[in-house]
Amino acid sequence: MLNTVVRLAISILSSLNGKKLFILIYHRVFDEPDYMYQGEADKKEFSWQMQLLARYFNVLPLSEALRLQAEGRLPSRAVAVTFDDGYADNLYNALPILKENRLTATFFIASGFLDGGRMWNDSIVEAIRAAEGETLDLSGLELGICEIGTPEQKERLARKLVGEAKYKNLSEREDFIAAVLAATGAKPDGDLMLTTAELLQLYHAGMEIGGHTVSHPILKTLSDAEALSEIATNKKILEEKLGTTLKVFAYPNGKIGIDFLPKHAELVKSLGYEGAVSTEWGVNSPRTDRWRLARFTPWDKKPYKFLLRMMSMYRQVKS
Ligand SMILES: [Zn+2]
After folding, report:
1. Ligand 1 centroid distance, CA of 282 (Å)
2. What is the pLDDT of residues 184-232, one digit of tens each?
3. What is the pTM for the complete model shown?
4. How many angstroms does the Cα of residue 5 sit away from the middle of ligand 1?
5. 133 phi, psi to nearest 5 deg
6. Pair (25, 104) in one structural domain
């Protein structure tokens, strides 16, 4: 039965024409599955996914895929694999698997976290992971007494807190995170992000690097001058480090109308980028606006489901 499904999925995928582009989105590749980061890949999962892509799809760096699509020469079953933010595990866990399968991916880097930074959401997640006991008193944040007795409860609470903090302005968010850390008694430390030397290793291994702002703000919450500075400074810093020109950009958080607006797409365009990705769910046709390209996360835990997902996504084209 399974083999029949896989064969059918492959034969349908093989018949798809060359006009649409899949863009997959990853953040982390963990050593082992991590209950606090549901939906993120671990090495084993990433490995079979890349094997499937290498076998049945044509994987390209994003900027090359966009160029070929514009020229009407995109190969059939074209896929761009993308990573957001700049985690060190991208170099240590993802790169060896990409190389094993002779694939090139595109990495969008928030340059403010290179060389010793960490993203605020990871501080929240690690604080909740480290919290002891059955409950956590977050009444100071008007969240009451929260259950943290099981891994599921911890994961759910961390996700809720990250969601709450995301749209606060910088100083409110810092206060919120300080209150979470104080309630848990945890002091998360340790660098999770790439250093400049590690970023260079990734680049010199043939991977494409793209822009993702300096400090990963929600662009919509910034003034126009701040948004321009975040996007332009990030591009300049990365280009100086790499000695190349960045061609593609990813909007932080990436929801159209919620996290960024058409004016931010105009800014990105004016800085010489060639395309930009959102986190809207979908597959891209030649008609898709290249300043708000759609992506999706392959979350399936079984290869045949992954193939079926790719097939069904193919029919949901953004225009
Ligand atoms: Zn990001």
Report:
1. 18
2. 988 877 789 999 999 999 999 999 999 999 999 999 999 999 999 999 9
3. 0.92
4. 35
5. 95, -175
6. yes
